[in-house]
Amino acid sequence: SRLEKVLGRRILMLTKIAKEVLEDVSHWIGYYESVISDEDISEILSYPWSWNASTYSNHKEKTQNSGERVKMDEVWVREENRPYPKLRKSVLQSAKLYGEYHEFFSCIRHTDFRINKYGVGGFMSLHIDNIHHSHGQSYGYPQSSVLLFLNDDYEGGEIIVAGNTYKPAKGSALVFPSNFMFPHEVKTVTEGERWSVVSWLM
Fold first, then answer.
1. Which of 29-38, 54-63, 143-152 is least confident?
2. How far is 174 from 197, CA to CA, in rounded Å?
3. Are 190 and 156 contacting, i.e. CB atoms less than 8 angstroms apart?
4. Contact between residue 73 and residue 53 where contact means Cβ atoms under 8 Å apart
5. How far apart are CA 40 and CA 45, in angstroms?
6. Which residues contact 25 (CB under 8 A, 6 or more apart)?
7. Using the 8-state DSSP alphabet, how is residue 102 labeled?
8. pTM
């Protein structure tokens, strides 16, 4: 019928618009392989970390329904921890690569590094990263998030950033703005352990 044809054309038009919007947003998501070596990853994975169950913090560092928002173990890598310089080198290398594609991007400071370990059933719900004073940093809202991926021998655990799905390779990085346009989540891990590192750039 005529109505069906009109609706069909409109659906096609909306699908095209949605695809263009996603492609435009993905321009601001950087994916880079081989930014951290296997040797450095082995050292990080074997380091005697003291893990804590992750919490989900608001801008006042208070937790909100953490069990419903995130399920993983975490540990903060501070300057006194031996792997710190290697993680710093990889995060800054990722920022440099991102800056080569975005001329107005710059990194003045970065937070310490949080290692995220997701076991089977682990996940992180949809959220954004622009929380002031989060994770002990006190010098402004982050402009970009950097994620390093320490392994890829697990099932599930895809990361979705602004509607774009990634299953990152071991040693790779994702960099993207930490604002409301880039909500992201980690899907449930169904087999193995998923290790990643996050830092925020100012």
1. 54-63
2. 10
3. yes
4. yes
5. 9
6. 162, 163, 164, 181, 182
7. -
8. 0.84
